[in-house]
Amino acid sequence: MKKSLFILALVVLVGTVSSAPASAGFFDFLFGKDNGEVNLYTNRHYDTDEELLKQFEEETGIKVNVLKGGSDELIERIAREGKNTNADLLITADAGRLHRAKAAGLLQAIDSETVLNNIPANLRDEDNQWVALTVRGRVVVYAKDRVNPLEISTYEDLTADKWRGKILVRSSANIYNQSLLASLYALNGEKYARAWAEGVLNNMARAPRGNDRAQATAVAAGIGDLAIMNTYYIGKMLNSSNPEEVKVAKQVGVRFLEPTHINVSGVGLTKHAKNRENAIKLIEFLSSAKAQKFFAEANYEYPANPTVEASALLKSWGDFETQDINLTKLGEFNQQAVEIFNEIGWQ
Amino acid sequence: MLKRRNLKFLFNIWSISSLIIIMFVLIPNANILLNIFKPANQNWNHIKEYLLKDYIINSAVLVLFTGFFSILIGLIPAWLITQYQFPFRNFFKWSLILPLAIPPYIGAYTYNGLLNYTGVIQTSLRNYFGISVNPIYFDIMNIKGAIFIYTIFLFPYIYIITRSFLAKQSASLVEAARTLGRSSFEIFWYIILPITRTAIVAGGSLVVLEVLNDYGVVKYFGITTFSTAIFKTWFGMGDLISAVRLSALLMIFVFGVLLIEKFSRGGKRFSYSTTKVRPLSRTKLSGIKAFLVSALCSLIFVIGFLIPTLQLLYWSWLSYAKILDVDFFIFSFNSIFVALLASILIIIISIIVANTVRISDNILAKVYSKVAILGYSIPGAVIAVGILLFFIGLDKFIGSGKLILTSTILMLIFAYIIRFLAIGYNSIESGFDKVGKSFFEASRTLGLGITKTFFKVDLPMIKPAVISGFLLVLIEILKELPLTLILRPFNFDTLASKAFEYASDEMIHEAAISSIIIIFICCLAIYGIHKLGAGKGSTDVN
């Protein structure tokens, strides 16, 4: 009796497995797909990205499989998978990480005229092993009612005594802060970078915590006057489904510091890509004017393709001059930046 | 003659399958642990000099305070509910387990969303009463806040274990004390506390393991602990060796905790020879006392379950139009499907190993039972990479030049099994413990084989333990995060991973629907466990 129950349970189990996701057959589901399709490892998980990939599939008939994860985890995974890796493309939301993948010997050059024409040289790796897809600035957001934006115009100004107890910023574990410090290190050397980080630490309104939105909210709440954050979060807050968040975003102003530290989301072609041609087609598609417009507009980022104009909202914040630095440096100096943060005690 | 029987014990289908299972559990873990013996590098010196102290202090503070408060709000309602009759007692009896349905990281996002400047409390004060309060008073994103979050969502581990223990063990002692005219407080202090000590420690060690392993809450609140440090060192600094050293330190910590649990339990075993346990006759409370007791239980229920759930429901209402599409149903299905499959496998494996351990009293069997629970004491991220390396190795061994097994659903399910085998195993083991060995021996004496005895005698008796173990594992897998994030196949999301992605992209409203579904399914499972307990009288979650 019990035995037959057991067998029945097994039958049901097998039945469920074989009828598993209607779209895929039993073995595909259990053992994964055979290739011929582009396999993308990405740490961007916006619904807009998925929408773009769908458009690509419809236009070309090439299927794209997506594996999402943290950028560092994905890089570690590609490294461990070695020659056998499934990954054809790697997308991360930080140039420093793309550089790390390159430094680990995981990428190869993207030799496509189309891509090189679409994306300017300063937004590409020196050897074209990765190219940018979107650009964001790390800016200061200020309380409109308490701060005259003309009082602050460079990153160095953030260390001035008058901002003691006024600055809000998230933890140093965050890659955006690491890349910002790495850029200052690359431009001005270790001494400058350390003094800058210490100066900001001294001026903090509270111990670092929360995400970028939380910093803007804290400015509106009066905990501090200035917050260091990425541009696109203000765009997202202005369009939030929470009316209170919209209010917060309207209370703060965006100030580009000169020269502005920019970072990118970008894509790299893996060294052992099995579907190289199709993968390059996908990069061509993502860097094309049409995709770039969609990419940037839906997520309030700046397009990497210069033929595409930024959205009206972004244009309303005005123009800015960017740091004169190859973005590869963000990766080269990441380790030093992390060590400075740890040594001075920026949590 | 005797010898041949012993041999049969060693080499039957049970012990052979157990051996194979144990090897599979051991290999990926050993893969990682071997890294401990590699020499320290420069990163390690940097970590030791600047960071280690904070990791240790923060982790210790979190563990100690969460442990203390969880015991407080776990034990007191457990005691009240087993001792007294008061309004809504039957409802609280099971609803106080419900906070377990809410993953702590979702609880943290929810409470912060509720309390922060744009949350409902402060905005109502501002918009309707014109009061602007100092937001510092509502700040939850600090170590105190983390202790609050862990306590309020993890205390049910202690509540469940102490309640079922009290229900079974306290009747004669408490009644004797009552007859001798002792007050409720004296009974609590001199009888309940000492006899529940082992149960408290058992539940407490679960809470401690969860706290040490959690990544979501501390990352969001910006608190550096061992688990954030392991991620940071490994993935941020790209330094596997130092990360493994940190894990090893953490494991020493964990084994310390488990050892304390072991010693405090002494050699005690609680098995009974009949399946009937006499329930305690409850004292009926009335008037102000009844009100106070009900109010206390309500307060815990409201803070631990009702408020966060209502907040999530409100957010779901704001965002459902954007979220509910075909994809959403696909990943809900994925989530439930893999959780079910892995839970079934875990229970089958647990039964095989636990039964082998029970019937063969040798050293090897003792080792099995330790290995089976190994995965639960290793951080999820560390297990994930151990398994990844193991599968890549397997694929190399197969030698097709491609990754056939890696990045498949098989790999993910394998990881779940290793990580959560302990929960299923403990459940089944305690089921076997309660049944004892006498029925098994009687059946064997009467000539039935081990396997036949298992199906005819043992399985029916441990059935409640099987079902409650299954449901507990199911809950854990539905809530699981680090393994899923690192090991999932292409085009594969689960409810938990999707909720985490939205939340970490700072889209908490969009995360709400996935969270609500996780909570809803977990609630059903908890209700199932409760029903099972009520139906059988004696069997409860262990």
Automatic annotation (TrEMBL), chain A:
Gene3D superfamilies in the cross-refs: Periplasmic binding protein-like II
Single GO molecular function: metal ion binding
SUPFAM superfamilies xref list: Periplasmic binding protein-like II (SSF53850)
Record has Ion transport as a keyword: yes
UniProt-listed InterPro entries: Ferric-bd
Record-listed Fe cation binding positions: H45, Y232, Y233
Keyword Amino-acid biosynthesis: no
Keyword field: Ion transport, Iron, Iron transport, Metal-binding, Signal, Transport
Secretion signal, residue range per the UniProt entry: 1-24
One term under GO cellular component: outer membrane-bounded periplasmic space
GO biological process: iron ion transport
Family of the protein in this entry: Belongs to the bacterial solute-binding protein 1 family.
Protein name in UniProt: Fe(3+) ABC transporter substrate-binding protein
Organism, scientific name: Orenia metallireducens
